[in-house]
Amino acid sequence: MNLTRLKPYLPWITLVTLTLLVGIANPAFFNPVGLMGLVADIVPLFIMALGMTFAIYIGGIDLSMQQMANLVTVVATVYLAQFGIAVAFICIITGFLFGAISGFVTTRLYVPSFVSTLAVGFVALSGAKYLSGERALSMDATLRNESFGWMFTTVAGIPSELIIAGVLLFIAWFLQTRTTFGRALKAVGSGELAAVASGLNVDKIKILAFAISGTFAAIAGLMFSVKLSGGDANLANGFLLLAIVAVLVGGTPLTGGVGGVINTVIGTLIVVVIRSAMIYLEVDATQQQMVFGVVLIAAIALTIDRSKLRGIVK
Amino acid sequence: MDAATYVGTQRRKFLSRERVVKWAPLLVLIVLVLLFPLFEWLEDARAGDDHVYLLDSRFFSIRNAARIFISAAPALMVAIGVTFIIIMGSIDLSMEGTVSVCAVVFAFAFIAWGGTLLSWAWLALPVAVLVGAFMGFVNGLVHIKLKIPSFMASLAMGFVGTGLALLLTGGDRIRVEDPIFRSLLTERWFNFPVMCYVAFVFLLIAWFIQSRTTLGRNFYAVGGGEELAHASGLNVERVRLMGFTLAGAFFAVGALLAVGRIGIAETATGNNFMFVSITAVVVGGTALWGGIGGVWNTLVGVLIVNVINNGMVVIGLPGWVQDGTLGLLVIAAVVLSTDRKSVSFVK
C-alpha cells in the first residue's frame, strides 16, 4: 500500500492515532462529559470551518471569515434589543451579502480570492468599528436569554450547540453531495477550465460558494456573540488560522475538488485533540499558534494536488 | 479616415492603457494631496474664516509631511520587501510575524549587549536583519521545496512568526530607550527625522538591486513568464529563494524603524503591516500578476496609503473609515492593473 492509496484515509488515521496517544497519556480524556464539553466548545470554530470548506473546495480561500464574524458579533449585539430572535436573519443576510461581494469581486473583477476576501474583510472590519463605536459591547442578559437561551439547554443530554452544528453539517453535506449545485462545486474545484467548457455558469457557482462561506462565518459569529454575551470588532480574532487548519488537516486540499464537509468534521476534531493535548502537556497558550502554523504547513504539503499546479507554484 | 476619427484614434493612443496604468498612481497621489486641503478650505469657508487654499492648510504643511513620512518609513521598508516578491508573481503574507520576531530579537539582543549603540549592542542591528533574512529563507524553502503556493506558505509562516514572537516575549513589551537609537525619531535634519533618510537610503539600495543587478532583472524575468525564464536556463527556484530572503531582510529593516519610532518592541509590532504593505504595493501600480512595477511604484503606493490615513484624521473623519477605504482601494487597484484580455480565470 503506497502513500497515494493511503492519502484519503490519512485524516482518519491521524485522528485515531492522536486520540489514542492523548488517551493513553491522560485517561481522563475519555470521560464522556468532559469530551462532550470539549466538542461543544469548538462549535463556532467548526461552523466557520464548514464555510471555509466551500471556499477551499472550489480552489479559492476566504480570508474574510474572521472579520465577518467580528462584524456579526457587533450586529447581533446592537440589534438584539430591537429585533429579538429575528436578529439572526439580519446576521445571516449580512454574511451572505458580504460573501457574495467577495465572490463578485473575485469572479467578475478578476481579483484573486486571497486579496479580494482580505479587502472585503477590511470593509467588514470598518462596519464593525462603525457600529460598535470601537468599544466592546455587551448584550442585555434577559434579552439574550429570551431570544437565545435555548442554545445553552441540553436535549436528551446533548448540548443544543452540538445539535445546531449537526443540523448545519447536514445542510452543508446535503448541498455538497445531493444537489446539482454540489456537483457543480466539485466540477469547478476539479478543473475550472473544463467546467467552463462544459457550459457551467462558473461565476455564479463561485459567487454562491463565497456567499455560503460568508453565511457560515455569520452563524459562527452569532453563536460566538451569544456565548460571550457581547460584541466587539476583535472578538473572533484568532479563528482564521484554526478554521484553515481544520479544513486542510481534514483532507480538503488547497487546490480544491476533493474532500468536503465530512473531512472538515475530522479536521476540526483533530484540532480539538491537538488543543487538549497541548493543554494536558501544559504547552503555553502563547505557543499554540506556532504549533498550529507548523501543523498547517505539514497539512498543506501532504494534501495539495501538485499535478493541478501545472509545474508552476506561484 | 476623416479628421474627427483621426483625432479620436490619436487620443486613444495618447491615453493608452499602459500609460494610464503607469501614471495613475502618481496622479492619484497628487490629487489626494490637493484634495484634503480643499476639504479644510471648504470647512473654513463655510464657517466664514479666512483661509488661503494650501497656505493655511494644516494638512499641506512641512510639519504634517514629516508626520506622514514617519508613519510611512517602516511600512515602506516592508512594502519594498514584498514588492520583489510580487514582481516575481508570488506573494508574501508573512511580514507581520517576521517584523514582530525581528523587533523582539533586536530588542533583547540590544539590551543584553549593553543597551546603547556606543557599545557592542550595535551588533543587534545586523543580527536583526540576519534573523529577518533567515526567516525569509525558511519561508522560501517551505514555498519552493514543499511546492506550496506562496500565499499559503507565507501566511502559515506568518502565524508561526507571530507565535514565536509571543513565545519570546511572553506577552511583555520591551522598551528600547537608548537615546542614540531613538534619535532615529528625535533627531531632525531639515525638519525630517533621521529615520526618513534611513528609509530613503534603503529605497535607493532596493532600486539599485532592482535595476542594476542580475538578481533584480531575474525577478522581472520570473514574473514576466516563468516557463520562458526556466527555458532560457534561469534557475528559477534559486531566484525565488533569494527573493524571499531579500524580502525578509527588508522586513527586518522595517521592524527596526518601527521600534525606533515607538521605542517599544512587542508581538503587536507587526500588526497591520500585512494589509498596509500589500495595499501600498498594488495601489502603487505593481501588478499582482508579476513582471510590472518596482520600488518607486511602491514609494508612491505607501505615500498614497499614508496620505489617506493622515488626511482623514486631519479633516476629522472617524477612524473606522480608514479600514474600509483601504479595502476598496486595494480592489480598485487590482481591477485597474489587470488586463482582462490576458487573464483566463482567477482562483
| Weakly predicted, low-confidence segments of chain B | none
Order of helices and strands of chain A: HHHHHHHEHEEHHHHEHHH
Number of structurally distinct domains of chain B: 1
Largest sheet of chain A: 2 strands, antiparallel
Instruction: Give the overall silhouette of chain B.
Output: globular
Mean pLDDT of chain A: 88
Strand content bin of chain B: under 5%
Assign the CATH architecture of chain B.
Orthogonal Bundle
Distance between the termini of chain B: 44 Å
Count the E strands of chain A.
4
The CA-CA distance between the termini of chain A, in Å, is 32 Å
Overall body shape of chain A: globular
Largest interface, C-beta closer than 8 angstroms, per-chain residues: A-B, 54 and 57 residues
Q: Structural class of the secondary elements of chain B? A: mainly alpha
Question: Care to describe what's here?
Answer:
The complex is a heterodimer of chains A (314) and B (347). Chain A is 72% helix and 3% strand. Chain A has 314 residues and is mostly helical. Chain A has 15 helices and 4 strands. In chain A, the strands form 2 sheets. In chain A, strands 1-4 form a two-stranded antiparallel sheet. In chain A, β2 and β3 form a beta hairpin. Chain A has one domain. The longest helix of chain A is centred in the C-terminal third of the chain and has 27 residues. In chain B, strands 1-4 form a two-stranded antiparallel ribbon. Chain B has a single domain, classed as ABC transporter involved in vitamin B12 uptake, BtuC, CATH 1.10.3470. With 347 residues, chain B is mainly alpha-helical. At the A-B interface, α6, α7, α11 and α15 of A face α5, α6, α12 and α14 of B.
